[in-house]
Amino acid sequence: MNIHSITIETNPDAVGAAESFYRDALGLGDRVGVRATTQASTGFRGFAPSLIFIQPGDVDAAVERALASGAQVLKPVEKSLWGYGGSLLAPDGTAWQIASANKTATGPATGEVEKLVILLGVGSVKASKRFYQEQGLTTTKSFPAYVEFDSGAVKLALYKRAALAKQVGIDEAGSGAHRLAVVAGGTFTDPDGYAWIATENSVTAR
What we know:
By secondary structure, the protein is of the alpha/beta class. The protein has helices spanning 15-25, 56-68, 125-134, 161-168; strands at 5-10, 32-36, 41-43, 47-53, 72-80, 83-89, 95-100, 113-122, 138-143, 146-150, 154-160, 174-176, 180-184, 188-189, 195-198.
């Protein structure tokens, strides 16, 4: 089963602004859709998409566009052991990581996206790993606190919820709907309440 895209849910009066943010600021109109919801959600929603660019310069450019479009800094962009990046809170309330595996430029900034990873915060990494394996996903990396799957255009990874919140720099407290739908080949809800929907039910950002 492959993940084709993700759909972010937001308040009905904010759909247009969210579509513009993901299309124009992050350049993800083909991989991130938006749809309206009236389900309440407060605080950390339990997940954090990670947008990985080839070049560090593209990280800077994307973060600059995002901030100009109403995003807020959660963690400032900086070099780390694993690369170069930071995290931000989108205007719709979704926490995002923006990063590059390269700490220094290996070429000019081109805007090329290496991959989009959807990081799900879960109660039990072991139990969630087993659940997704039962759905037909194959693990590519597996550690007690982190699991990554081969899931097509959008990669899926699992963290403990508290660890993911710490990684993106947001308080782990939160309640209500996740406001996320993973667009793949089947419709189900996982043990932590994340909704998966079939491709024909997805919404693409305009």
